Amino acid sequence: MGLRRSLAALITALSLGAAGQPSATGMPETPTASRQSRAAGPTVVAVGDIACAPGKRTTRTSCRERDTARLAARFAPRRVLALGDLQYPAGSLRQFRHSYRRSWGALKSVTRPIPGNHEYLTPRAAGYYEYFRRQRPGYYAFNVGGWRVYALNSNCSEIDCAREERWLRRDMVAAPRRCTAVMMHHPLYSSGNGETPRVRRFWRVAYRHGADIVLAGHDHHYERFRRMNAVGGVVRDGIQSFVVGTGGRSLFRLRGSRVPGSACRDDRAFGGLALTLGRTGWGWSFRTTKGRVLDSGVGTCR
């Protein structure tokens, strides 16, 4: 059974299970709510922090981008949500062509990327914009099934994020959806480097307009948070966020205790987050390159 079919089977099993199955909030769902939230939909794969510099040797703990690309391809995703820092060390066009292209390049036609801070180590992120043929300033929106997805540029020292915030607010008003996801490179919540305060402005808009999921990279580990608001509170009507910086470059060891709201985290495995985007909800599964499912579950759109 392929990974996409096995993910669908998992979600179906969860949706038809008994009451008490954990939901995205960590609270039990009723069987009716579970069935509604898992309506069939497209599969997307989200991951960031991907490709080593050209010529770098693959080791057990670094440069595993070929493995993560093979994993993603096995899901046959409708879209790849590439969460920034896609090419190390500086995201030049040469580096993209001689490393990223040789691993994740086969998925380029279905990839919807955002730039990370490493892309901007090449002035104006010129290599990123040319390789992916994106337009500056690098934020945009698109639809996947019934979902609206906002691809944001969180490099606020490089672009006008106040203008981006106004664009996000306008589009969320003009193009409302029952289910909405946001992707940006820098996480607001993380047990790695901690909060990135500058992205709180995007969270405030997303929370106010009913967004369901926020996806980020930057910190090289996997982490899922309970539903949160934009000021650090765990709330029933909050946004569920994921940190998925496990695309292959390296892993950062987590230190200290969990930050508030952290529900699941892992710093020892490369892998990708597969999401099935249903009509009224979603299912998720974080799978490692060795085939283990470290985290999975279901959620209902707000």
Kindly describe this structure.
With 302 residues, the protein is an alpha/beta fold. It has a single domain (3-300), classed as 4-Layer Sandwich (Purple Acid Phosphatase, chain A, domain 2). The chain has helices at residues 3-15, 31-37, 65-74, 93-103, 126-132, 161-174, 200-208; strands spanning 43-47, 79-82, 111-113, 140-144, 147-151, 179-183, 213-216, 222-225, 240-244, 262-266, 271-277, 281-288, 293-300. Helix 4 (93-103) crosses helix 5.
Largest sheet: 7 strands, mixed
Shape: globular
- The radius of gyration is 18 Å
Strand residues, percent: 15-25%
Topology-level CATH name: Purple Acid Phosphatase, chain A, domain 2
Helix-strand pattern, N to C? HHEHEHEHEEHEHEEEEEEE
Number of strands: 13
Coarse structural class: alpha/beta
Number of domains: 1
Strand adjacency order, main sheet: 4-5-6-7-9-8-10
| End-to-end distance | 32 Å
Helical percentage: 10-25%
Summarize the structure.
This protein is α/β, with parallel strands linked by helices and 302 residues long.
Give the helices and strands, then pairings:
Elements: H1 3-15, H2 31-37, E1 43-47, H3 65-74, E2 79-82, H4 93-103, E3 111-113, H5 126-132, E4 140-144, E5 147-151, H6 161-174, E6 179-183, H7 200-208, E7 213-216, E8 222-225, E9 240-244, E10 262-266, E11 271-277, E12 281-288, E13 293-300
Parallel strand pairs: 1-2, 2-3, 5-6, 6-7, 7-9
Antiparallel strand pairs: 1-11, 4-5, 8-9, 8-10, 11-12, 12-13
Helix pairs in contact: 4-5, 6-7
